[in-house]
User: What shape does this take?
Amino acid sequence: MNNEADQAQTEQEEVSSEIETEQSKPEGDEAQMLLEDARAKADAHWDELLRARAEMENQRRRSQRDIENAHKYALDKFVQELLPVKDSLELGLAAISEQDEASAKHREGIELTLKMFGSVMEKFGIKELDPTGEAFNPEHHQAMSMQESAEAEPNTVLVVVQKGYLLNERLVRPAMVIVSKAAEAGNSTKTIDEKA
Assistant: This one.
């Protein structure tokens, strides 16, 4: 009997809560408007969430790329300062004559030093540009002058005045070069500098 009373009371509570719910519900059109408004707000919030996520992902990628570049090109200024030292060693090596025994020992010492210097530079991603005989590339070479040449194709590097260098495939210093141009008929031995 107690069970039946509890069950009756539970049914009565369910009926009264349904009546309250129906009474608190707005009319059909009003309910539809509230639903559409809620959907519009939900869509707007979803769009804002997606934009915020995309912006955070872009910021993360940008930061990661900046960190990678900072690690990759941190030596840029240091390399620029070291290049004149390497140039001086190479010029000193070229100036030493092979006539006497003392000069030969100095030459050997400078060659070993340059070899070590070169291997250290390669270890840190520094690549030498010595484009003699290659086609002129304005991204990596800087033309000092042009010289007529019957043997070389036009726009070929004839002489490297100063070597260029790349740091992790980014240009640190362009190679200073003299570039060939087609020889004029009857005037194949003169250069631009001689004409001027």
